[in-house]
Amino acid sequence: MVRKKFVVLPYSTTANSCILIALEKMRTLAKVLRPVAAGIPVTSVLFVLMALPVPAATLVLPNSGAGAVGNDSSGSLAGQIASLEFQEIWDMSQFPSGNLLITGLAYRLKPNSGALNSTVTSASLYLSTTSFTPTTMTSTFATNRGADFTKVDSVTGTLWSSPGCTGSAPCPFDIVFNFTTPFLYNPANGDLLIEQQLTGFNATGTGQLDAQNYTVNPLVGEIVASPAGATGAFDFSGNVTQLTFTIPEPASLALALLGLGALAALRRRPV
């Protein structure tokens, strides 16, 4: 039988992205300090600061997938499926440390596999932190979910649509989900669980999702059920996924600003 994988998730440039975010915050701090030095109240500057957008970054799961095509694929996705549920657990080692506010994810097709177009009656996407790992996850969906299991997006109509690509390089991540509810994740609290529940799936085209399979030291575990049910079939495989996220740290920047503002006030105080 053709194995069908429907998965949702990315990050190989973790260090570079974090450095860029830190530099951007330093630039913001330098700009904010100018009005403080000019005598504008610190509280007024803080109000503006908290409204500033936080730069977004991306990561690829697994990290090795950022610059290389995966060693597996979803297989043929063409056809109709009444209902489908799949769940992946990605190892915490694939994420930078600290809080990550995940705002979206994207998939890509396997090069030279063709185009893919699919629709659904309904699709729901969930994320959670989990105490289970790729090697300890069970075949029961509910058991693997963490206490913060959250619906981050829902879809009706078009689910995936991509023209695919040719050549030896990875295809672009052009099957995109922008979350309606961002998810706060910290790898120190456990691995990341991604789950999709689909009904009325209908796909045309020869395109296949790019995927990664492991025989040793797995970084992802997956269970799939079609039709959807309480349990699924297990595999050390997952779709190559790109995550979009921000690092929510306005509080630390605000504290630094308050401290520097206090120092500036002390320097202006007459002796």
Describe the structure.
- The chain is α+β, with helices and mostly antiparallel strands and 271 residues long.
- It has a single domain, classed as Jelly Rolls, CATH 2.60.120.
- The protein has 4 helices and 13 strands.
- The strands form 3 sheets. A 6-stranded antiparallel β-sheet has the order 6-5-8-3-10-11, with no helix packed on it. Strands 1-13-4-7 form a 4-stranded antiparallel β-sheet. Strands 2-9-12 form a 3-stranded antiparallel β-sheet, with no helix packed on it.
- Strand 10 (220-225) and strand 11 (233-235) form a beta hairpin.
- Helix 1 (14-37) runs parallel beside helix 4 (250-268) and helix 2 runs antiparallel to helix 4.
- It is globular.
- 38% of the residues are buried.
- Mean pLDDT is 84; it is low at 1-15.
